[in-house]
């Protein structure tokens, strides 16, 4: 009875409102349960199916937006990946939560919320018979890039309700993520990770993720980090921008220690004890010491072109088997 109820619920979650003709690309919206600061929320994602897909399950790429929400950047990748025979799945972590941007307040939708959305999407997609559950990748930008990176961490997959032997992403491509939280000797799922960073990124910086990439590799992860010279945050799409009151955490790096406590790198403030519980008032003090205001970014033509070619190469190698 419980199994029948779960199947029925999944069927309802994946019911489609399909647009377009049978010969063209088809789009549908799915929803899946996630959390918003500990409370249940139904998050939505739009799937675009390849019109030239062969019979049988197809590979999929989850695309997770950044602090500005879903827009032209995500559409750019849909246009490029779908003709390759890959279904794209654009998560909208903002609309169901009544948020349009987190640039001025990153706590309105937290990184933990994003991580849970990414892993909940994987669970829903892996249960869809039209998708090859062994060939689901995830890519994301800035805040969504962080979730694309963190979805590779086995402990976070299990904490989100994943099971040993259950679905895992087959490819992780974080574009200019934040590496605010760095785990001690993190164990990844083993899937390949390709970090794409900008050397002129002052929004999240590139050194924290470059350093964390080295730590991940030392712990056994399959990871490559590429830094594009002269590229700012958002180097793959969009005009130059400056937001004076945008929250900037590029100097904030929270390091997990051997005893499982957490310490802010620059200030040395202990934010979480070995028991995993936050130290009262410590996080606020640590963030006050490292957070600044003012963010900027914009496209770099060379980095935008090269990163797209790099991404397509990763997709061919790990999702299409070519």
Oligomer: single chain
Instruction: Quickly count the domains.
Output: 1
* Number of DSSP E strands: 14
CATH topology: Rossmann fold
Q: What is the string of SSEs from the N terminus onward?
A: HEEEHEHEHHEEEHEEEEEHEH
Distance between the termini: 43 Å
| Helix run count | 8
CATH superfamily: Alpha/Beta hydrolase fold, catalytic domain
Strand content: 25-35%
CATH class: Alpha Beta
Q: Give the averaged pLDDT, no decimals.
A: 91
What radius of gyration results from the CA coordinates?
19 Å
Topology:
Layout: H1 2-13, E1 26-36, E2 39-49, E3 58-64, H2 72-81, E4 87-92, H3 111-126, E5 131-141, H4 143-150, H5 154-159, E6 171-175, E7 181-182, E8 193-198, H6 207-218, E9 223-228, E10 241-248, E11 254-256, E12 262-264, E13 270-272, H7 282-290, E14 292-297, H8 301-318
Parallel strand pairs: 3-4, 3-5, 5-6, 6-8, 7-11, 8-9
Antiparallel strand pairs: 1-2, 2-4, 10-14, 11-12, 12-13
């Amino acid at each position: 009875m419980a199994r029948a109820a779960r199947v029925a619920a999944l069927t309802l979650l994946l019911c489609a409102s399909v647009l377009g003709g049978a010969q063209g690309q088809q789009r549908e919206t799915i929803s899946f349960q996630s959390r918003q600061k500990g409370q249940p929320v139904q998050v939505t994602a739009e799937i675009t199916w390849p019109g030239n897909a062969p019979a049988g399950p197809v590979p999929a790429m989850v695309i997770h937006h950044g602090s500005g929400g879903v827009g032209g950047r995500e559409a750019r990748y849909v246009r490029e990946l779908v003709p390759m025979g890959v279904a794209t799945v654009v998560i909208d972590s903002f609309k169901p939560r009544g948020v349009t941007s987190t640039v001025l307040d990153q706590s309105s939708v937290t990184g933990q919320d994003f991580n849970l959305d990414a892993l909940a999407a994987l669970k829903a997609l892996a249960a869809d018979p039209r998708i090859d559950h062994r060939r689901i990748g995830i890519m994301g930008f800035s805040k969504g890039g962080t979730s694309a990176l963190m979805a590779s961490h086995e402990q976070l997959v299990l904490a989100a309700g994943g099971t040993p032997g259950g679905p895992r992403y087959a490819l992780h491509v974080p574009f200019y993520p934040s590496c605010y939280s760095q785990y001690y000797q993190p164990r990844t799922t083993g899937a390949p990770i390709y970090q794409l960073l900008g050397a002129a990124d002052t929004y999240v910086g590139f050194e924290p993720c470059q350093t964390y990439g080295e730590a991940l590799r030392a712990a056994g992860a399959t990871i490559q980090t590429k830094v594009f010279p002269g590229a700012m945050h958002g180097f793959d799409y969009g005009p130059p921008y400056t937001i004076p009151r945008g929250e900037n955490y590029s100097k904030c790096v929270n390091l997990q220690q051997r005893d499982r406590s957490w310490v802010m790198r620059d200030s040395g403030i202990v934010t979480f004890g070995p028991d995993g519980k936050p130290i009262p008032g410590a996080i606020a003090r640590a963030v006050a010491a490292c957070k600044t205001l003012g963010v900027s970014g914009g496209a770099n033509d060379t980095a935008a072109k090269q990163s797209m070619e790099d991404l397509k190469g990763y997709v061919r190698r790990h999702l299409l088997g070519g």
